[in-house]
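Re-running the complex after MR caught last week's input typo. The corrected sequence lines follow. Everything else is unchanged.
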Amino acid sequence: MAERGVAETLEEAAAAARACTLCAAQLPLGPRPTFRVSETARLLIVSQAPGTKVHATGIPFNDASGDRLRLWLGVDRDAFYDAARVALVPMGLCYPGRLPKGGDVPPMKICAPTWHPRLIPKLPAVRLTLLVGSHAIARMLGPGGMAAHVRRFRDYLPGRLALPHPSWRTIGWEAANPWFSADLLPELRARVRETLDSAAPPGG
Ligand code: SF4
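Corrected-run output:
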């Protein structure tokens, strides 16, 4: 891992993160840190951890969960993957493996405390941070449970907004919580649109 100086740049921190092998022994497919950062990003999405498809392609949210998240956000792939406007930093940068009973292993515990403090403060243009999934919500908003934090979305605006992890497992939760589609999603789409539009260069 690269030595860290007081004046470490975002580029240097990102290069060090991409070379990270800190918990290689516990990763079934080995390290492949997958994230996107840029000094101009206005929207930051702090999510859970890559799945196998993301691990294979090296593209964050390049899977069905990503399609669902883009639907929630009201953005297409071009806007979502515009690294100049959108930063994607999960709680675990590498695929953590599969649980015997189904579902993925939680993000590696050491990852966010190691890399978030080196990456996230170096994103000076971020105006809106989406906390996606229970792990990101617990780290950034504290205890209380995912659903309670998501439901209190107005309390965290304009800077932050919590969302469930957009996997198929959330479909039933969404149906049981109609306020999510009726109240939260329109607000989310409006905030995301406003945030991304604000990133346009002057006169652009
Ligand atoms: S999960 Fe995080 S800490 Fe572990 S090897 Fe990947 S980048 Fe490093």
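None of the earlier attempt is carried over here. The pocket of iron/sulfur cluster is lined by residues 17, 20-24, 31, 33, 92-94, 108, 110-111, 114 (CB under 6 Å). The chain has ten helices and four strands.
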